[in-house]
Amino acid sequence: MKQPWATSTRTHRLPPNWPQLRHRTKTRANNQCEGPTHPDSGTRPKGTPRCTNPGTECDHITPGDNHHPNNLQWLCHTCHKQKTQHESAAASKAWRAKAKRPTEQHPGTKPTNQQNLSSPNNSNNDNSEGQQHIGHKAPHNP
User: Fold this and answer.
1) Helix H segments across the chain?
2) Could you report the per-residue pLDDT of 25-46, keeping only the tens digit for each?
3) Could you tell me how far CA 104 lies from the centroid of its own chain?
4) How far is CA 21 from each of CA 16, 24, 79, 100, 104, rounded to the nearest angstrom?
5) 42, 83 in Cβ contact below 8 A?
6) Which pLDDT value is given to residue 113?
7) How far is CA 94 from CA 85, 87, 97, in A?
8) CA separation (Å) from 99 to 63, 76, 94?
9) How far is CA 134 from its chain centroid?
10) Partner residues linked to 75 by β-bridges
């Protein structure tokens, strides 16, 4: 069975100095995980103690190809996995929302213009929501 990342192009998009950036991030973190203590949020609030596990993986704080040292953090496998799952779930949710089709108006109704609604002689004025039912006239009660 292929690993999920087997078809990823991620390693091809890393800069030539990636090993140095990774080492610098590890050194800056003193080989300790910089991950959140509350992994559900994907971020660590200021003043919150960080994870106490040793770090093993270099992670992009903001997903994408920004390899600036300020966008890199050193994480343990557990924190990295939880952060990636959180980002993946958020991306899936955004994609589903974008792919959702807009609700269509019922074909038996059409919007009426405001002028027709205000006319006292309009026998088709059957509701106050500004909808006119096609083919059905409301009874006229004087």
Assistant:
1) 10-13, 18-28, 77-99, 114-118
2) 999 999 999 987 654 455 556 6
3) 25
4) 10, 5, 20, 40, 51
5) yes
6) 58
7) 14, 11, 5
8) 22, 34, 9
9) 41
10) 57
Q: pLDDT of 97-125, one tens digit each?
A: 888 777 777 777 766 655 455 545 554 44
Does the reported pTM lie above 0.85? Answer: no
Contact at 8 Å (CB) between 85 and 62? no
CA dist., res. 61 & res. 35, Å (int): 10
With bands split at pLDDT 50, 70 and 90, how would you rate the model's confidence at 139?
Answer: low
Transcribe 7-29 into DSSP letters: T--HHHHS-TTHHHHHHHHHHHT
A 10 A CB-CB count for 96 gives: 9
Pick the closest to residue 74 from 64, 89, 59 (CA basis): 59
- Own/partner pairs for 62-71, CB < 8 Å, 24+ apart? 63/87, 65/13, 67/14, 67/15, 67/18, 67/21, 69/21, 69/24, 69/25, 69/28
98: three-class secondary structure by DSSP: helix
Q: Which two tokens stand for residue 87?
A: 């980002």
